[in-house]
Amino acid sequence: MQRTDGRPRHAQIAADLRAKILSGDLTEKLPPFKRLVAMYDTAWNTAQRAVALLKAEGFVVGHQGKALLIRAKRIEIIDAAPYLEPAATRVTYKMLHVGRERPPTDAARKLGLTDDETAVLRKRLTLRDGDPLELSWSYYPTAIAAGTPLESPARIRGGAPAILASLGFHQHEFVDEIHVRQPTTAELETLELPPGVPVMRTLRTITDREGTVVEVTVIVKGGHLYGMRYRRTL
Fold first, then answer.
1. Which long-range contacts (C-beta less than 8 Å, at least 24 apart) are formed by 113-120?
2. Would you give the DSSP letter of residue 209?
3. Which of 34, 61, 107, 156 is the most buried (most CB within 10 A)?
């Protein structure tokens, strides 16, 4: 049986406009309300509610009666990388927690942990120009990270890759497994997400040249303003 879109009409319209903005088919200004009403054969207040959703997500700015500007530059495409250098990428890191904890089941399996083993955790909030970008939980095998700066909340020059390299574990490859879901309450509040916006969860497994898993990171990023770019030589 063919599925029909059961979302409210304003949510359907917002989804169509959002897709046009992300694809570049709609730029600079949103069509005026009179035009939106005609385009989508809808009521005036329905068009207003659709635009309100886009405003809440940061895609559109402006006030009723004036041109509604599209904030294309708010959409950041992030190059997939195990570590973003703050000076080069306008990002800052806020350390939320450091300690030994049991990772989520999928991360524990990647690390090869037994049922009662823990790992060294570094939980961070990443911000871009002061706005929340992503939450990350980086887990390191205790056999590698115990007693190293990875167990300290202090800022690490060069990030975890520098510490791992100094210990003889040079990061060589990472594999990302990504899925999209609705955020938990903690994720919604910390990342300051508008209602209804999904998150992109990445499970990143990093290995050295010998194939040893040296880090597993869970990354949760708001799905409404950020995308990922991957490059691979074929």
1. 117/142, 118/142, 119/145, 119/216, 120/145, 120/146, 120/150, 120/151
2. T
3. 107
